[in-house]
Amino acid sequence: MTTLKLIFGTSMLISALASSGALAQDKPVNFMTAVAAESELIFNETIARAGGVNQFAHARMPATSETQTIVRSQSDMLYSQGVYDVSESLTVMMPDCKTGYQSVHMFDANHGQLGVVYCGETKTITAADVSTSDKHIYAMMRTSTDQGLEVANAAQNDVVMEASSNTDYVGPGYDHMQLKQAKRVLAGTASIVKAKTAYTNELIPDTVTIKDGSDLDQYNYVLASLLGWGLMPNEHAYYPQLVIKDSDCTEVTFPKPPVQYDKSGYWSFTAYSLDGYLRTGNAVVSSYDAKPNDGGSFTVYVGNSDACKAHANRVDMPNGGTAISLRMYRPNNIADAKAFEEEFRSSNAGK
Fold it and tell me: pLDDT tens, 28-56?
């Protein structure tokens, strides 16, 4: 009942925002259209950076507080982002890995998942695979920098994205001022949202409605897709979260994350500001550089004091506290990832 009230109340509030200020030529933003409106905004921004559809806008340097383009950007990998026309198919061809981790994640404007392609794999996407009438999809390539920037840049260049058609993207025309207002309202519910994705065949076409989904599934899907736009499916990346208070130095200890290290899996611990953005110059520790404790666990120190800076595995504390994401890329399985998440959160609760 609490969940239903929350969903209903949030929907009513967003609908009220929509009715209060839409321009005649703009489509209103409400609870069920906010994801598509966010997609339209990011699709257009990405096309502008890439110089058109069917090509990547490659970030050649890791994201910083000045260069990040999406919420919860990582600073230990390179992002390549592009909007692709799949109306006559798109084939993704990934060479063997040059870096520790590389993937191409694809989804449509309703955040319907189309799959993840890894090193040495090939995948073709067709129009029938997409849940929206418009047949443009978003591709986000993640390339780790563990072998240095020169190798990472070469790995980015080697991925082939072969589209058979080249139609310009024309968005639905949502009111982006309303979208901004809606995100501000919805951000207050982020602490109770569970990461939830859905594949395109799980969605009713041209909607963000999950076939046979519960109210809770629907709520989590919309909010996770909006506030964590670009989120990968749990079987490909699992994202334990933790919020800790501002302090001189806080220790965060956890067991060795259960990822497929033999299949280029890795973990990454990032300290964001409470609004989910990079705000410091030293925000990440990963499995590529973290020093383990005796027994195999890890402790990351979050703080800016001189005493804190003396520790290995240290990241800066953003002003006001931090929202931590411990990403597990290619987890062993969902059960292991959930068990890790429970221990990670419970052992560090109250910090």
Answer: 998 899 999 999 999 999 999 999 999 99
Q: Is residue 168 part of a domain?
A: no
The domain total for the chain is 3
Residue closest to 121 by CA, chosen among 95, 101, 100, 146: 95
31 and 53 housed in the same domain? no
Alpha carbon distance 324, 272 (integer Å): 6
> What is d(CA 273, CA 222) in angstroms, rounded to the nearest whole number?
23
Question: DSSP code of 12?
Answer: H
Domain of residue 155 covers 43-163
**270, β-bridge pairs:** 284, 325
202/210 Cα distance (integer angstroms)? 6
| CATH code, 249 | 2.60.120.600
Q: What is the pLDDT of residues 174-204, one digit of tens each?
A: 999 989 888 887 776 666 778 899 999 999 9
The full length of the chain comes to 351
The pLDDT assigned to 190 comes to: 65
